[in-house]
Amino acid sequence: MPPSALAALFVTLVIGLGGCGSGSGSDPGVGSGSSSTGTSSHSSITGFGAVAGGHEKAAVAAAVHSFLTALANHDYPGLCGRITASNRKQLRSFGEGGSGAGGCATVLRKLLNPGVAGEARRAAAAPVKSVRIEGETAFALFTPKGGSASYLVMRAEGGGWKAISLTPGTPLDPTATANP
Hints:
It is a single chain. Helix 1 packs antiparallel against helix 5 and helix 5 packs across helix 6. It is built from 7 helices and 5 strands. By secondary structure, the protein is of the alpha+beta class. The chain has a 5-stranded antiparallel sheet, with helices on one face. The chain starts with a helix and ends in a 17-residue tail after the last strand. The protein has one domain: Nuclear Transport Factor 2, Chain: A, CATH 3.10.450.
């Protein structure tokens, strides 16, 4: 796949993911550097929705672990099953429009750097410290060993939780997981 095609896919995924929010139409403010109250993304994440506990937290944490494990193992079909349907559709469309062949797994195989496996493995081994849920959107906060505080945004879909991006994000404030 040519570099320009990869860049186009990346832009498509970022734009597509930018519209993901809670069912209430609110914007959690992640990555924007500010929330509706003018605070850092740390406040946006730790102030988003409500703290999940028990079964809700366990379900999101299991989905995060499953996603990161598939990423670490280069399990592209498995990874496709762990991202939202809208993202799979974007990847399939891109694959069909690019070379005329390939679905989600084929595009991911070409798109993702094999070196991401080590980072994904460390992230998968990290416990999810906090989960915040509002509507159908959840933020899972964790810190990989030797890494920075990170989050993965998940969306309730088909009776489970699916990732809305291909990689975890890093809050602007590295203490984001300290105050769940």
